[in-house]
Design goal:
single chain; alpha+beta; HIT family, subunit A; eleven-stranded antiparallel β-sheet; binds zinc ion
C-alpha cells in the first residue's frame, strides 16, 4: 500500500480589526490539497462561526409558498408523470418508462447526454430531506441501474454514468418534486475524467489502487472515517469540494450496472443519514453525484458518491458558489472535515446500527 499524502500549507497574516478597536490580530489560513487531484480548499478558523451568517436560515414560509404554487401544474405529480413526461421509443424501453415502488423513470425532454433519464422518487410533491426514505432513493437508484444495464447491453461502449440530485432551487433544481437524474455516455465529463485519470496515474506511479489505499489510510487514521456501511466506506474528505462534503466509496465495484440491490439500499440508507445531519445543521438544499465507470476497477476506480449541502432558501439569498468555487475551483471550509466526521458518526450510529462498523478516531 502506498502512502496517501494529505498536504496542508499554513500561513499567517496581520490585520487591524475594527470590531476589536483596531487591535492588531494575527490570522491563520490553512490550504489543503486533495490527495488525488490536488484541488485546493481553504480554512480560516476566524470564519468558523460564520456558517450561520453565510448560509442564513431557510424561510419556511417561502418554501411552503413555493411548494403550494408549484403543485398544481407539476408534471411529476399524480397521473402527469405517466402522461405528460417524455417517453422512450418502444424499441429502447418497452412501455416508454420504468417503474419501481413510487419511482418512475422517463426521458428528459432536454437531454445533457446521449442517455439522460429523469427519475421521480416519490408520489408526494414535496418531501423534506428527512422525509426522503431509503426506499425512495433505493428504488430510484435501482431504476437507474436497470436503465444502465439495458442501455449498456445495446451499446457496450457506454462506460461512464453518473446519478445526481439537485434538491431545491439553491442546488439548481427547477422542480421541487423529489427527483434524481442519470447521465450516461461513451465519454466522461470533466470531473469524472479527472478522477479516472487520477487513479490511473496513481496506479502507474505506485502499483496500487488509489481508493483502496485511501480507505485503508482513512480507516487507520480514523479522524475522517465515519463508518463502513455494508460495502460502502463513508468518509469526510480531507480537502472537500463543497460544503460539509461526505463521500461513500464502494469496497470493490466501479460499475453501477454491477452494484447489487442490497448495496444500493445500503447506499440509500447512508444518504438519508447524511440528509438528517444536514437538516440537523439547518440545511435543506443539497446536491449529490454517484460516479460509475464500467471496467474502471482494473485501474483502481471505485463507485463513489459525493454529497454536499447548498445555500439555504430565503429571499435574496447569497449564492454559495462564487469566484472561489467557479473560477478558482477551490472550496471554503467552514466545518473542518475532522469535526464533520465526528458529528456525522452520531447519525450513522443512531438507532439501528446493524451493519455499520465504527472506526475509533
Ligand atoms: Zn409534483
Amino acid at each position: 500500500m502506498a502512502d496517501i499524502n494529505f498536504e496542508r500549507f499554513e500561513s499567517t497574516l496581520r490585520i487591524l480589526n475594527p470590531f476589536n478597536n483596531f487591535a492588531e490580530e494575527e490570522h491563520r489560513v490553512e490550504v489543503r490539497k486533495d490527495p488525488l487531484l490536488h484541488d485546493t480548499s481553504v480554512y480560516n478558523p476566524f470564519l468558523r462561526d460564520k456558517a450561520k451568517a453565510f448560509f442564513g436560515r431557510n424561510d419556511e414560509e417561502l418554501i411552503r409558498k413555493l411548494v403550494d404554487e408549484t403543485s398544481a401544474n407539476c408534471i411529476f405529480c399524480g397521473d402527469s408523470v405517466r402522461t405528460r413526461t417524455a417517453r422512450y421509443p418502444e424499441d429502447l424501453i418497452p412501455g416508454g418508462r420504468l417503474e419501481l415502488g413510487e419511482a418512475v423513470l422517463f426521458a428528459n425532454l432536454f437531454a445533457l447526454a446521449p442517455h439522460h433519464p429523469v427519475i421521480v422518487l416519490s408520489k408526494a410533491h414535496f418531501l423534506r430531506p428527512t422525509e426522503i426514505t431509503p426506499s425512495h432513493l433505493g428504488d430510484g437508484l435501482s431504476l437507474a441501474r436497470r436503465y444502465l444495464q439495458e442501455a449498456t447491453e445495446r451499446d457496450p461502449a457506454l462506460s461512464f454514468a453518473t446519478v445526481s440530485a439537485n434538491y431545491l432551487q439553491p442546488a439548481g433544481a427547477s422542480l421541487v418534486h423529489p427527483h434524481i437524474q442519470m447521465l450516461a455516455a461513451t465519454m466522461p465529463y470533466t470531473y469524472h475524467a479527472r478522477l479516472l485519470d487520477g487513479v490511473s496515474s496513481y496506479m502507474v506511479q505506485h502499483g496500487t489502487h488509489y481508493f483502496a489505499d485511501l480507505i485503508a489510510e482513512e480507516r487507520s487514521r480514523g479522524k475522517r472515517f465515519i463508518g463502513k456501511h455494508g460495502a460502502w466506506n463513508w468518509i469526510a474528505p480531507f480537502s472537500p469540494m463543497g460544503s460539509n462534503e461526505i463521500m461513500a466509496i464502494h469496497n470493490e465495484e466501479s460499475d453501477l450496472g454491477r452494484i447489487t440491490v442490497k448495496d444500493l439500499r445500503d447506499l440509500s440508507d447512508g444518504i438519508t443519514r447524511v440528509l438528517a445531519l444536514y437538516e440537523g445543521m439547518g440545511h435543506l438544499s443539497f446536491n449529490f453525484t454517484l460516479y460509475s465507470v464500467k471496467g474502471g476497477e482494473t485501474v483502481g476506480f471505485r463507485c463513489l458518491l459525493k454529497i454536499v449541502n447548498r445555500q439555504n432558501l430565503y429571499p435574496n439569498y447569497r449564492n454559495d458558489d462564487y469566484f472561489l468555487q467557479k473560477l478558482l475551483q477551490s472550496e471554503l471550509i467552514l466545518n473542518l472535515p475532522e469535526d464533520l466526521a465526528a458529528e456525522t458518526r452520531m447519525y450513522f450510529h443512531a438507532g439501528e446500527a446493524k451493519g455499520i462498523e465504527q472506526e475509533s478516531p
